[in-house]
Amino acid sequence: MRYFYALSIVSLLAANAAAQETLTLKEAEKAMLAANPQAASAALDLETARNRLSAARGGLYPSLSASASYSRAGAQGGDPYNSYSYGLSGSQPLFSPSVPASVRSAAASQRASQAAYDRVASRLNYELKTAFADILNARETIKLSSETLKRRSENLELIRLKYQAGRENKAALLETEAVLKTSRWQHARYQKNLRLLERELNRLLGRPAQSPAPALSLPLPPEPPEELSAFEPRLGNHYSLRSARAARDISAASVDAARSAVLPDASANGSYRWNGSDWPTAPNSWALGASLSLPLFSGGRLSSNLAAARTALRSSEADLKNASDEVYLNFEDAFLSWREAGAYMDVAKSSLDAAEARAWLVRKQYLAGQTSYFEWRNVEEQLITEQNQYLAAGRALIVSHAAFTQALGE
Q1: Alpha helices in 68-169 (DSSP H)
Q2: Which residues does residue 265 pair with via DSSP β-bridges, in sequence order?
Q3: What SS3 class is residue 271?
Q4: CA distance 81 to 68
Q5: Spans in the chain with pLDDT lower than 70
Q6: Between β-strands 81-95 and 265-276, what pairing exists: parallel, antiparallel or unpaired?
Q7: Is the distance from CB of 187 to CB of 146 less than 8 angstroms?
Q8: What φ, ψ does residue 224 adopt, rounded to 5°?
Q9: What is the pTM of this model?
Q10: Which one of 247, 283, 323, 345 has the minimum C-beta count within 10 Å?
Q11: 90 phi-psi bin (left φ>0, alpha ψ -120 to 50, beta other)
Q12: If we measure between CA atoms, which residue out of 184, 172, 312 comes closest to residue 250?
């Protein structure tokens, strides 16, 4: 494809870019993820999941605790006395299937939180790329509008001279004046729209809304390949699939936990204590042992919980299959849209070249008196339309590539 050359919406910056610090897309992504409250919330959720996983793993290791007590008592007519008690106690699970199940559930929850964070980051990156494309498109539109204003001012002077010489009618003069005033109004509207877009970018980056937007640098989107097969291996790491797999793993861990509820639970316990009325010379005692518990009757609660957990597991497996289908369909749709936008870029460029050549020719013919004002006017309008369509095609190409990247889960 030839859409790379003359892609002005991407390759050109604002007129004062040399005097400003240029903000690249990578720098903007870092600033956005650090300042955006949605990204911060997702990052905190991920940190919470990591801490819960550490807490769940702690159930696999022995626990040790210390205790101490002191009291002073007495009776009327007698001397008061002290009472001390202090010691150590510990326990170690020997057979507790519910603990490994809770660890697997916490690990799956962490993966789900990571996928949720990646989902937020992917959506914000898409919004950021779209904001870059919109601002660059708006700046190029203003530049094009300025050139149009200059050309239409020259046209008005030309029509006025022809009217004063009696070679053009008053309707043409009045219409040219109205067109120039309309162009001035459109130019002011373009400036307003640019300011609104810059404010949205500042908000996305966590900057003050009134701050002037910097010059922007956006890399050219690559040319889309002919086939999808090059991207399919990366699709397996999509955040939606990782989230669905984590939900299935949580359900599987719930099944294991419900199944372990009908199994015995065994643990080893030990303690060493000192107690008496004098410290530190106080009697001591120790104890070592093990405990075993086995549920005998629960009124059907345990079996019902197991059946519910198995049903939830089958549901999560169905959700995973559905997520896989949706991810692939969205991915294919985004790829086709990206390739279509790249193909249309060639069409827009060819149409613009043809409109520029025809506008130049018809202008020369009008100056030589070989064509009418109305034909010249129509050709001028067509040229402006093709210029705007070319800019819009460049924006659509960037946005479609950003949508494809999001559909890829990146």
Answers
A1: 98-164
A2: 293
A3: strand
A4: 17
A5: 1-20, 74, 77-78, 276-283, 285-292, 296-299
A6: antiparallel
A7: yes
A8: -65, 140
A9: 0.80
A10: 283
A11: beta
A12: 312
